[in-house]
Amino acid sequence: MRVSVVIPAYRAEATIGRTLDSVLAQTYPAHEIIVVDDGSPDNQVAVIRQRACERLILLQQPNGRTARARNTGVERATGEAIAFLDADDYWEPSKLEEQVAIFARHPEVGMVAGVSYSEPPGQSRIAPQLERRALRDYDRVLRVRRAGRVRIAARTWTGMVMIRRQALGEARFVSGLEPAEDRDLWLRMLCHPVYLGSRPLATAVLEPGSISRGSLDVDCQSMLKVIQRNREGLGIWGYRIWTSYTLLRWSALNPRQAPSFRRLARSCLLWPLPYSAYLPAPRLVRVKRWGVLLRQLLSNAS
């Protein structure tokens, strides 16, 4: 199986070298490595050219944000599978080999993803911790229906995704949904069987200002758009659960009490039950949020 790797890059001069080195070091060599310079004003193109080889393809375009950059790479790709990676993240050496093997064992699978390490700024990377109830979703083929897509899409991170080109078809990332444009596509890909691996094969580097790391406020607004776009595929319960959870997150990040109260109240009305069966959310998360808001209210009153 030929694998095309698509890497959108913007202001990645400090990180793109490590990203490309991790792809070039794969035990299963990529057929092609397509880097899309999204009108970056820094010196990242020079860093990319330092790693020039016959498999490395550099495409340059005016800044159009992440979705357009990824779509440019997808259109150029010629492989039977496409793997995605951001310009500040990196892979373990066996990432492509292990995921190609999954496709070979399970020809019905359209998308492979899984867990990853995370690396906060200035800190050592952190290994993922899977709760016992989450293990049922890993290391097997999943055929996901309706509300279950909420759970799987929430566990799908771009740097671990490989999609069979036949399953992708004409589907593409949608501009204007950043930074949630990837979750929108993963939701649509869940009409095909999916396989999540429990072994971390990539690292998400939490760099401020990267191409896919935005403010939580913008992320929440974009997620509400994604949920609305996929309302039919999610079903009524999936739609209500994920909208409720997104409003909860939005409530938690808003420093103003009145909007925070309103969003939390709407979250509870949409889905008053626990999230635990559908999303990797902490237990009693809304009860704790109500407690925080009430303490703030009492403190201000005094």
Write down the secondary-structure element order.
EHEHEHEEHEEEHEHHEEHHHH
Q: How many structural domains does the protein architecture include? A: 2
The CATH topology of the largest domain, please? Spore Coat Polysaccharide Biosynthesis Protein SpsA, Chain A
Number of strands: 11
Question: What do you see in this structure?
Answer:
- The chain is of the alpha/beta class and 302 residues long.
- Helices cover 42% and strands 15% of the residues.
- It has helices at 16-24, 44-49, 65-76, 95-105, 148-154, 165-168, 181-189, 216-229, 231-253, 257-270, 285-301, and strands at residues 3-9, 32-38, 56-61, 81-84, 90-91, 111-114, 117-119, 141-142, 162-164, 194-197, 202-205.
- The strands form two sheets. An eight-stranded mixed beta sheet has the order 3-2-1-4-9-6-10-8, with helices on both faces. The chain has a three-stranded mixed beta sheet with strand order 5-11-7.
- The longest helix has 23 residues, at 231-253.
- 41% of the residues are buried.
- The model has no long low-confidence stretch (mean pLDDT 90).
